[in-house]
Amino acid sequence: MQGDTTASDRPCDPRCFLNSAGGQDEGNTGQGAVDFPVAVVLPAAGCGERMGLTTPKQFCTFLNRPLISYTIESFEKISWIKTIVVVVAKESHELMLHIVKTFRHTKVKVVEGGTSRHRSIFNGLQVLTESTEGSSLPRPKVVIIHDAVRPFVEEDFLLKITLAAKEQGAVGAIRPLVSTVIATTSESYLDHSLERAKYRASEMPQGFLFDIIHQAYQLCSEFDFEFGTECLHLALQYSGTNAKLIEGPPTLWKVTYKRDLAAAESVIKETLSLSACLISGTMAETVELASKVQKNLAAHDMAVDVFSCAKEYKELLLSKTRNFIQITVGGGRLSDIAELIKLLEETNHALLYPVVIIWVHLYMSEEQSHRQKPDELTPIMDLAVKAKQGNILLYGIQVIHSKVPELWEKSAERLSELTAALIRDRNPAFTGQLLQA
């Protein structure tokens, strides 16, 4: 039986998603080991009844992006995976094409599904069998089948699945059972319970030699097509291939209920908050403040790279982080922030994940901070509104310098705490405001 483990059952270390969310280079872990064509089939034609929403869960959106796009990205960033077949219901076909275009997924082929999970998977496999010599979809040696609503699959584990599939013919991910499984009588009394230590939950992904799983689907019965859920069973029954089972990481949990969407969003937000780029300027006070903030944010598990000016970080920023902190004296120059936003937009840095920019206004005295007129904030608010349309969240924080070391230290601590909270929560409600540290 396919495991329906959810977020509450399986905690997820956000670092597992760092390569994807952090904008790292495309994965090359298995580049040398995988010298054969690999394709992925993502069945995504379900209606998500257990979610209790009118929108199928694979199309539910958080952080301005549908769930299925995160799953696709987990595979698409891996260089040795060449083709991703996404199988959707007929009524979702145009929506899926729109998602592919909007988020620039380049390896995806969209296919219409069938009336059941197995029929949908078979449709996806059929597309790969139809590949001809001049086709853009090469016939794979190995095919990976995965759920569209399990976004946190890791490249290292996919490599294990792929290599084992090539050697064994069929392989599946498993996890220990969390709860004891019992059988009930027709009158709803306990019949018996299973010894939990002897059983495992079948999870995704699963990998197969393409010819083995395709043959299994060609030979399987109508009953299996309509009511079956386990691909490994088909490979055994109709192709005579007994699957190798590999215990997977706890990140393989499935988005099944509403609370799982919130958990997935939390994982991604936490991942995005692991690093930041801080532009300090060259004044002694701003450099000192940057040093304090860097140290304080380390306590929040955030690695901060400090640069004195924009020229130093331009080559690094687009590959390392989606959080930027710029410290200026007084109101500073709005044009510097506008230039950063323009650069992020031109390079599509905020296409897949929201980018945070925190503009720190350092005032050398309390009197100086009071000189800022309300109408001077209007350009900041206007820029924030425009930036938000491009998935860029611009926040402002005001901090006052103090010559008293204790007070100055406390100001830096408050600034760091507020900065960490804004980066972690990514709440659009506070964009364009000048918050007090």
Q: How would you concisely characterize the structure shown here?
A:
With 437 residues, the protein is an alpha/beta fold. Helix content is 38%, strand content 21%. A hairpin with a 2-residue loop joins strand 2 and strand 3 (65-66).
Features:
elongated; alpha/beta; seven-stranded mixed beta sheet; 38% helix; 437 residues; six-stranded parallel beta sheet; 17 strands
Q: What does this entry look like structurally?
A:
- With about 425 residues, the protein is an alpha/beta fold.
- About 40% of the residues lie in helices and about 20% in strands.
- The protein has 15 helices and 17 strands.
- The chain has helices at about 20, 65-75, 95-100, 115-130, 155-170, 210-220, 220-225, 230-240, 260-270, 285-300, 310-320, 335-345, 365-370, 380-390, 405-425; strands at about 40-45, 60, 65, 85-90, 110, 140-145, 170-175, 180-185, 190-195, 200-210, 245, 275-280, 305, 325-330, 355-365, 390-400, 435.
- The strands form four sheets. A seven-stranded mixed beta sheet has the order 5-4-1-6-10-7-11, sandwiched between helices.
- β8 (about 180-185) and β9 form a beta hairpin.
- The chain is elongated and about 80 Å long.
- Mean pLDDT is about 90; it is low at about 20-25.
Q: Could you list the spans in which at least 5 consecutive residues all have pLDDT below 50?
A: 22-26
Quickly give the structural class. Answer: alpha/beta
Share in helix: 25-40%
Mean pLDDT: 88
Number of strands: 17
Can you tell me the overall shape? elongated
Cα(first) to Cα(last) distance is 53 Å
| Percent of sequence in beta strands | 15-25%
The biggest beta sheet, please?
7 strands, mixed
Radius of gyration computed on alpha carbons:
25 Å
